[in-house]
Amino acid sequence: MANVSIRNLQVRLGANNVIDALDLEIGAGEFVVLLGPSGCGKSTLLHTIAGLNDASGGSIHIGGRDMTHADPKDRGIALVFQSYALYPTMNVERNMSFGLRISGTPKDEIARRVERAAGLLQLGPLLKRKPGELSGGQRQRVAIGRAIVREADVFLFDEPLSNLDAKLRTELRRELKGLHQRLGATMIYVTHDQVEAMTLADRMAVMKGGAIQQFDTPDAIYRAPENLFVATFLGSPGMNLFHGHLDTSSGIWFRSEHLALDVSHYAFRQSPAHRQAVVLGVRPEDVDVRDDGACRAPVALVEAMGAHRIVWHSFHGTQVAAIVQDDRAGGAFSLRPEQVSLFDETSTQRL
């Protein structure tokens, strides 16, 4: 395993400046997820680490060595794509060992690596089968096994589960997490699926417009989003937002036309200003549905989700989501002030 250090990275594709002045430090053995919407630059960043895109500026160090302009084969990386890209006429064993065979690796070493990878991925009984005889999940495990046999310093995954159905994605997500724990390897994983990111990552980088908006543990990002984009991108349903201002005349209160909330105990990063325009955000699980709630609002919709329900209230033209674990669906709710986030209305940054 090896650390990855990216400093002041710039990537231009044609006339477009896709990534500009990006910094990212990934520790040896970390599982880091690059998360963001389509077009945010996450795959471009991964492909540049792999050497498939040229860096226009800045540097990429892998394991302490400058790999900014090194050939992909010299970077000590293994890349797993969204498509399986298996050779249809070769069986599983030969697909996994193909790269080793063409590089002249001794046969006994190939056998050792294939056996180890097959054991890790539960592919032993399938080694003599061809790709056409495998399910989608099995084919993706073979593609991952082909990467494992390289015994690379860094493993790169470019949305490897996006072609699978929901059940297979869940199963393979669990297998990937276990694989990381067994290998202890450095892994960088690209996805637009926030559930994948939250469950897989030791740390995740939320990206927008070719820039990293926040890089931290999934729990820290979920609970304390750095800006409004991060706040609304994570979570399903997304964070509820209320526009208003701060009143510091007696304590510190958030006030809007229809809502007042004491936020005196909020961990402000700097002293708040009186009448400062802000946005208050609260996760649906931190909205208490109760008959005596401070905010009266009719129920517009109830979504049954199995283990919980999502109750949507219509609050003066704003749809407010609450997650409840029982049959409550009252016409009022309250917000938990200790769980709110506050953002500056203009800069959209966390206060």
Give me the CATH fold name of the largest domain. Rossmann fold
Strand content: 25-35%
Poorly predicted segments: none
Oligomeric status: single chain
| Helix and strand composition category | alpha+beta
Alpha carbon gyration radius: 24 Å
Count of all domains: 2
Shape: elongated
- Strand count: 21
What CATH architecture label of the largest domain applies?
Answer: 3-Layer(aba) Sandwich
Q: What characterizes the major β-sheet?
A: 6 strands, mixed
Helix segment count?
A: 8
Itemize the secondary structure elements and their pairings:
Blueprint: E1 4-13, E2 16-26, E3 31-35, H1 42-50, E4 57-62, E5 65-66, E6 77-80, H2 92-102, H3 107-121, H4 136-148, E7 154-158, H5 166-183, E8 186-191, H6 194-200, E9 203-208, E10 211-216, H7 218-223, H8 228-233, E11 240-247, E12 253-255, E13 260-262, E14 277-282, E15 287-289, E16 295-296, E17 299-304, E18 309-315, E19 318-324, E20 332-335, E21 341-344
Parallel strand pairs: 3-8, 3-9, 6-7, 7-8
Antiparallel strand pairs: 1-2, 1-4, 4-5, 9-10, 11-12, 11-14, 12-13, 14-21, 15-20, 16-20, 17-18, 18-19
Helix pairs in contact: 2-3, 2-4, 3-4
Domain ABC transporter: 4-234
Protein name: Carbohydrate ABC transporter ATP-binding protein, CUT1 family (TC 3.A.1.1.-)
GO cellular component, one term: ATP-binding cassette (ABC) transporter complex, substrate-binding subunit-containing
